[in-house]
Write a sequence for this structure.
């Protein structure tokens, strides 16, 4: 499932790389236009649509059947409303595009949502991707990762006060059973030494950012 938010279009990842048969697309506010303008038909759209013109709104209404509209003054962001609805469909993966490069309050609101809604998103792997970065939140366990030249560097940041049992295998700078404490920058800009590797930890919540060298 792909959710396209309405952040600055210049930061949008290459949408075509995700455009495969069977993908469920959701547009959020101006992100709906980003999809339509690339020939992608959203199955649903969410938002107050206060960032688009009357002509653009007419166009969206003509093209998208399942539109969820909300007032501009509300307790949740448009993206949060879309993600909560998407989670009820129980997808294995949700990829969020168009959520970076604009307002920092919106971006940190998204990260906060992914770290705190454990019941809603606990069984769903969620990634926030733009043209230079891929961000994901992980809970304890072991994760296999693979070399991707578009997102070469790995950086690891604890969301909780500490992450324990942190281990890296197959990386240029391997680690075994480290405790990663909040505020540390020790675990930034690592990269895979081989075609694949793993990271694992036993307790805490970890944010992993993969970045391009461009």
């Amino acid at each position: 499932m792909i959710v396209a938010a309405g952040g600055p279009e210049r930061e949008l990842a290459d949408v075509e790389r995700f455009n495969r048969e069977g993908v469920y697309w959701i547009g959020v506010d101006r992100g709906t236009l980003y999809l339509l303008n690339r020939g992608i038909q959203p199955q649903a759209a969410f938002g107050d649509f206060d960032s688009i013109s009357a002509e653009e709104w007419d166009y969206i209404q003509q093209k998208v059947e399942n539109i969820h509209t909300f007032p501009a003054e509300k307790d949740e962001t448009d993206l949060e409303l879309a993600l909560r609805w998407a989670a009820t469909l129980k997808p294995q993966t949700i990829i969020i595009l168009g959520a970076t490069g604009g307002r920092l309050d919106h971006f940190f609101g998204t990260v906060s949502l992914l770290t705190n809604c454990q019941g809603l998103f606990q069984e769903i792997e969620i990634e926030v991707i733009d043209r230079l970065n891929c961000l994901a939140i992980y809970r304890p366990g072991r994760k296999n990762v693979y070399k991707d030249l578009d997102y070469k560097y790995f950086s690891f940041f604890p969301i909780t006060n500490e992450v324990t049992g942190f281990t890296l295998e197959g990386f240029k700078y391997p680690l075994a059973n480290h405790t990663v404490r909040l505020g540390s920058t020790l675990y930034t800009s690592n990269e895979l030494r081989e075609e694949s590797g793993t990271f694992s930890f036993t307790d805490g919540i970890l944010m992993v950012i993969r970045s391009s060298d461009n």
